[in-house]
What we know:
Isopropylmalate Dehydrogenase, 3 domains, two-stranded antiparallel sheet, 11 helices
Amino acid sequence: MASHSNSKKVVLIPGEDAAPEAFHPTVALIDRLDLPIEWDTPPIGDLGRAQVGNPFPPEAQEAIDRADATLFGSTNGASMGAMRHLRWGKKTYANVRPARWFPGCNSPLKNPQGIDLVIVRENMEDTYVGVEGDIADLAPINFVSRLHRKPVQEMGKGKYALKIITEACTQQITAFSCELALKRSAISGKRPHVTSGTKHNISPVADGYFLEVARETAKKYPDVHFDSLLADDLVHKLIMKPHDFDVIVLPNLYGDLFSDAAGGVIGGLGLCPSGCYGKDYAYFESAHGSAPDIMGRNIINPTATIFSAAMMLEYLGFNEKAGRLVKAVEKVYAEGKFLTPDQGGKSSTTEFCDAVARAL
């Protein structure tokens, strides 16, 4: 990579299982764009364990903190320390997961043309705060179930998990979603539209609060059409009428689940990138997992990783080169000669990436 005084620093974390098979060729594709980016590959995950006996040594955290962004493969848990720091340490509160169909994608729908939506998942709280335990531990608090009408500890042996929704995080994610809808509208010419999804009929306090705060926050964006659906109705409409959506803002858990459903509608998780944005940091990774079942077979679809890298290039200000990378991938899909098995093709990851390189 070219080194300039104004160059950007990016930490590379290849991830585990089949993830590096998509990750390394993606980095090679970015190298072809001749950008002022300096790569940094600190020892993380299995590499960190092998080299320094620690999957997330202090020098790895320092490298992340020094960098302008991080590109991440997918982890099976070995790189979890890095993931935790990138998410909660760097407060990357907005997980942006686009789902866009383009010609050649293996969608199960008859008419997928024009599907172009983004799920914005709140990334800091909800059930992901990790407060769980034995129901018996709740006895001193004497929580009474609204539905069972008895203290929860009397329901028998079992476990509980806490769901946390705060005003600050909900305001922040809704404002981000409205601003994203306005940016998309400037490109598409369509009216900006944000849809919220909650189970406020069953959780009137927590989910009801998310909806109430989201609605209030959206009023500050009069140009944005804001509406809300019950979460179960939303996932139904996402599959039946995906063309109706623009930006969907969701609490953490629903965002995690529904973005996979949106991926299924366009042709699978192999197509789905994601970016996690904070106030002054962002990291980028494909929305799929580390795919241990196909590890070593060189058939993982690198599209999600390449598109995540394109999102990173946009974030770093290299919009024109990001666009070139996306167009090169679209060209390979339109031709249909070098697609991976998940898209109905017979090509290897390497053959697909070679075709993208030629299209660049």
